[in-house]
Design brief:
Helix content: 55-70%
Number of domains: 3
Radius of gyration: 29 Å
Order of helices and strands: HHHHHHHHHHHHEHEEHHEHEEHHHHHHH
CATH superfamily of the largest domain: SLC41 divalent cation transporters, integral membrane domain
CATH architecture of the largest domain: Orthogonal Bundle
Strand order of the largest sheet: 1-2-3
Number of helices: 23
Strand content: 5-15%
Shape: globular
Largest sheet: 3 strands, mixed
Structural class: mainly alpha
Length: 460
């Protein structure tokens, strides 16, 4: 599972906490071996701030800091770390240190951290944990990545349907293994099948003798343990949930997903789509040079192929370009305008698909709308560019040709911007990954063909 994503704006908050002056101070203390001063600074940092500090220093200084702070390192710091940096930090920690940190974390976070470990070290860490915690983490790791089974935490409050409000309150007061944050209590039958939930505030306002089933809400949503994390995010967003139970196919209560984990998923998915649209597979700020270069190479290779295709189209009009220099000057404008217009449409389409807003019921309406938008903008910019070209080259024919090419390319860009993401999704390919490269190819080829083809017919 990917590392826990930071919420929007969190990086700036960490920057306020870990300033450049503080970084310089820590590095200076590190250089002169002032261990107590470093520990004092780290003690005042939040887990996110400590993670940001470890991410900002170089690998050598990071290893030294972990060696100094491992005794006092807040387990939540490991959760906040970038995935590549976390791998380095875990390598610097002993298995017993990692086991102690996992013991303090919720099941989902502990599983997330242990997943990054080599198999042998993971087994060693698991062996150092209590049997019940080890079993819970192993079961979590057994679920596929990016599913509800990985997101859920096992720590929750589940009470029998036969209890009264008073019994539930007494249980919550006396139990030592309750989660830190409780929003809802879940009511289960003798087979632990989910029957309903009770908001904590409602329970506290109810008299003790009242049966818990009288105040529970039986019509609560639940999430299948195999549901994809995108589906989980949609459920939380659509129903404004703070927490939601996770169940198996028999409706047995397995765990609960909290809203903070869903916010991480939303941020992670948005970041992932943004990176993929740029041909970057992951946030590689902290990744090694070789791995980053290898991952970017293939996307650049695909782009090279599409650029060669566009150049081949231009090559078919070599004679016309030699005769009329104005064509070479104006040619990039049509392709560029088509590419930008198409990118706008692709962005809207990919977002609508990701949010579940684009369905079979409204696809045709969306495509027709984008074609009309492309046509309207094409006509407006055709008029503007046609007049400019006429005044520039003193030839109304060139102005009319580039105006016609502009309309053709913007309409085709709008059509491609809608159909390419839809086609990729139908083929089982993430539209965020490949839409832009196909779109650029279409707008370049159509733009060059329309402009140079019309010029060949009407000017030569």
């Amino acid at each position: 599972m990917a590392d826990t994503a930071r919420a929007p704006g969190e990086g700036s908050e960490n920057l306020e906490e870990v300033t450049e002056a503080l970084l310089r101070t820590v590095l200076e203390h590190l250089e002169y071996g002032r261990i107590d001063e470093i520990r004092a600074i780290a003690h005042d940092l939040s887990p996110a701030g400590a993670a940001y500090l470890l991410e900002q220093v170089n690998p050598e200084a990071r290893t030294q800091l972990v060696g100094i702070l491992k005794r006092d390192l807040d387990p939540e710091t490991l959760v906040e770390l970038d995935e590549d940096v976390r791998e380095e930090v875990l390598e610097a920690l002993e298995p017993k240190d990692i086991a102690e940190a996992a013991h303090e974390l919720d099941t989902d976070d502990a599983a997330d951290i242990l997943e990054d470990l080599p198999d042998e070290e993971r087994r060693e860490v698991l062996a150092a944990l209590p049997a019940d915690e080890r079993a819970a983490i192993e079961e979590t790791l057994a679920f596929p990545e990016y599913t509800a089974g990985r997101l859920m935490q096992r720590e929750l409050v589940a009470v029998p349907a036969t209890w009264t409000v008073g019994q539930v309150i007494d249980y919550c007061r006396e139990a030592s293994d309750l989660p830190d944050d409780v929003y809802d209590l879940f009511v289960v039958d003798e087979r632990r099948r989910l029957m309903g939930s009770v908001a904590l505030g409602r329970m506290l306002r109810t008299k003790r003798p009242v049966p818990i089933t009288e105040i529970m809400d039986p019509e609560i949503p639940s999430i299948p343990v195999t549901a994809e994390q995108e589906e989980v995010a949609h459920i939380f967003r659509d129903q404004n949930l703070v927490s939601c139970p996770v169940v198996d196919p028999s409706n047995r209560l397995l765990g609960v997903i909290m809203v903070d984990d869903v916010l991480d998923v939303i941020d992670e998915e948005a970041e992932d789509d943004l990176l993929k649209m740029g041909g970057v597979r992951e946030d590689d700020v902290h990744a090694p040079v070789v791995r980053t270069a290898r991952q970017r190479f293939w996307w650049l290779l695909v782009n090279l192929g599409t650029a060669l295709l566009a150049s081949a189209v231009i090559g078919q009009f070599e004679e016309e370009l030699q005769k009329i220099v104005a064509l070479a000057v104006l040619m990039p404008i049509v392709a560029s305008m088509g590419g930008n217009a198409g990118t706008q449409t692709v962005t809207v389409a990919v977002r609508a698909l990701a949010m579940g807003e684009l369905t079979i019921a409204n696809i045709a309406r969306f495509v027709v709308k984008e074609i009309f938008v492309g046509g309207a903008n094409g006509l407006i910019f055709a008029l503007i560019l046609g007049v400019i070209t006429w005044a520039w080259f003193h030839d109304p024919r060139i102005g009319l040709i580039i105006a016609a090419a502009m309309v053709i390319n913007l309409v085709c860009a709008a059509l491609a911007g809608t159909l390419i993401p839809l086609g990729l999704q139908r083929a089982g390919v993430d539209p965020a990954v490949s839409s832009t490269v196909f779109l650029t190819t279409v707008t370049d080829v159509v733009g060059f063909l329309a402009f140079l083809g019309l010029a060949a017919v009407f000017l030569l």
